[in-house]
Amino acid sequence: MPWYLYLAFKQLFPSGRWMTFFTCISTLGVFLGVWMLIIIIGVMSGFGFKYGRMIIDTGGEIQVRGAFIENPERIQEIINKVPGVVASTPTAEGIVMIEHQGRPGYPGIVGVAPESVEKVIPISKYLREGSMADLDDDAVVLSAGLAASISARVGSKVTVVSPLTLERLSQDAYMMPTELTVAGVYEFGHQQLDKSVAIVTLRRMQDLYGLGEGAYGVNVRIAPDADVDAIAGEINASLPPGSRMRARTWMQSGEAFLFALKIERLMIILIVSMVVFVVAFLVTAMLLVAVAHKTREIGLYGALGASPWQSAMCFCFQGVIVGVIGTALGVSIGLLTLANIDPIARLIARLTGNWDLLVEIYEFTKVPAHITGADIAIICAFAIGMSTLAGLVAAWRAAKLKPVEAMRSE
Fold first, then answer.
1. CA atoms of 160 and 205, how far apart (whole Å)
2. In the list 50, 120, 130, 210, which could disulfide-bond 60, CB 3.0-4.6 Å?
3. Digit-coded pLDDT (tens) for 171-191
4. How many CB atoms lie within 10 A of CB 24?
């Protein structure tokens, strides 16, 4: 080990003492800055990642909408020929009244094609009860919140009344309400989707809304490594001219919310980054004080044959060591915190009475967390770089000292 690196360690961790006050304060500052950056980036990225996954898992990477589709099979054939498309499924949405044991609900209803929906929308992954294999024209799958509000469970009989029923009544015609059996209960982890959505077969939806053989849209699943924007463009180019149908990516569907999260994430990161800047100034100030206190020692190093840069490295490495130790602690504790962020957030929110408000704003029943290796690498490079820069300032000051003048210093 080079003598100047050994000396840097000895000054930070002197014999007989665990660490100096300077080491403790500086390392703690770097640790807190990195810890907060890990948590903030992890949580804010988690909201964006979870929201994106929710859009994809409920509608595929691409949704074709814009006009009533009289022949969805023909549109599917066109879409499936586009390179990169894995599967597609027709869909139709609307609003109905659903009733069970005198308890009414007014959910959104989605009609799906059982033979192809699982290839695009993995509903089975989110089922709490029941099975998608039981979804037929006489069955319905309910969201967890809707099932709880009308006291229904798997096997319950529910009555569904569509706007078409009311329209027929206004025309002095009569249309019997539809009785369906609950085949499953799902929970996506998103307040709106879990509160008031029912899923039926596309044929049942066509009967409820009088759609004939048509649908309102087609959801598309693409290959994992495919360019979603390029495929959406190719789909738009392949659709029949004048059809008024347009393919939109999942990012375009949730553009407003994702943009708001991006701005919020950026602003919070900038604010928290100030902590690392403050710590860097603190490290610089303390190392400059150390240089001033050890002026005669620096002069002695020079008299013994040390070059100016070797004397400087003694102080530069102190900044590096503080940065590495603080960053390692910050990343370790930060990742541990992210792994338990939901129970921690629930505890804090319930102590302050703001959990329901948090769910209402972000609409997620669990606090998500997601951080990539690239995010961690950037945080580490930033924190260690700032600490190294702080050490370089003191090192530059030490390198400028001339041995003879330094040894005369009082």
1. 11
2. 120
3. 555 667 889 999 999 988 776
4. 13
pTM, to two decimals: 0.69
| 407 pLDDT above the threshold of 50 | no
CA atoms of 91 and 137, how far apart (whole Å): 15
Burial 240-257 (b: 16+ CB within 10 A, else e): eeeeebebbbbbbbbeeb
Which among 24, 42, 23, 46 is positioned nearest to 34, based on CA atoms? 42
Residues 6+ apart with CB under 8 A from 183: 130, 131, 132, 134, 135, 136, 139, 140, 141, 154
Whole-number Å distance between alpha carbons of 8 and 322? 10
**Minimal CA–CA distance to 137: which of 201, 215, 184?**
201
The torsion angle over the Cα atoms of residues 368, 369, 372 and 376, rounded to 10 degrees, is: 160
- Residue of 152, 203, 205 lying closest to 182 (CA atoms): 152
Range with the largest mean pLDDT of 65-69, 193-197, 297-301: 65-69
pLDDT in tens, 372-388: 888 899 889 888 888 88
Could you give phi then psi for residue 172, rounded to 5 degrees?
60, 25
Separation CA 13–CA 25 (nearest Å): 13
pLDDT above 70 for 389: yes
What is the signed CA dihedral for 48, 52, 54, 59, rounded to 10 degrees?
160
Which H or E run includes 66?
A: none
* Model confidence band, residue 365 (pLDDT cutoffs 50, 70, 90): low
Find the range with the poorest average confidence among 104-108, 148-152, 388-392.
388-392
How confident is the model at residue 17, as a pLDDT? 65
Tell me how far apart the alpha carbons of residues 71 and 78 are, in angstroms, rounded to a whole number: 11
Bridge partners of 246?
A: 65
The CA distance from 33 to 50, in Å, is 25
Name the 3-class secondary structure at 97: strand
